[in-house]
Amino acid sequence: MDQRWLNEGYERVRSVLAQSPAADLEKNLKAMLASFFSRLDLVTREEFDVQREVLARTRAKVQELEAKLAEMEARMKDEG
Fold first, then answer.
1. Are the CB atoms for 38 and 44 separated by under 8 Å?
2. Which of 3, 57, 64, 73 gives the lowest tally of CB atoms within 10 Å of its CB?
3. How many angstroms separate the CA atoms of 25 and 41, rounded?
4. In the chain, which ranges are continuous DSSP H helix?
């Protein structure tokens, strides 16, 4: 019975707020913030994490190739 009472109270408050100027204010604020953030050229956390992993793999590959190159240069120096 307490849960039903809470649900009814919540629905009443939500209904009153939806019909009040507060709902318009919230919509306008959300639209303004969305516009502001779209101009900042931001990325999501998920996109950031994906790019961080790509960068880590790329760095590892570059280090591997640098080591192979140094090894090849050393062999050429010894042979020449």
1. no
2. 3
3. 25
4. 2-18, 21-38, 45-79
d(CA 12, CA 18): 10
**Could you report the per-residue pLDDT of 6-16, keeping only the tens digit for each?**
788 888 888 87
Token pair for 66: 């640098």
Distances (CA, A) of 27 to 21, 39, 47, 73, 77: 10, 19, 27, 64, 70
pTM of the model: 0.50
Residues 23 and 17 sit within 8 Å (Cβ to Cβ)? yes
The structure tokens listed for 43 are 């990325």
Residue type, 9: G
Q: What is the pLDDT of residue 1?
A: 52
Burial category of 36 from C-beta neighbours within 10 Å (exposed 0-12, middle 13-18, buried 19 and up): exposed
Confidence of residue 51 (pLDDT cuts 50, 70, 90): very high
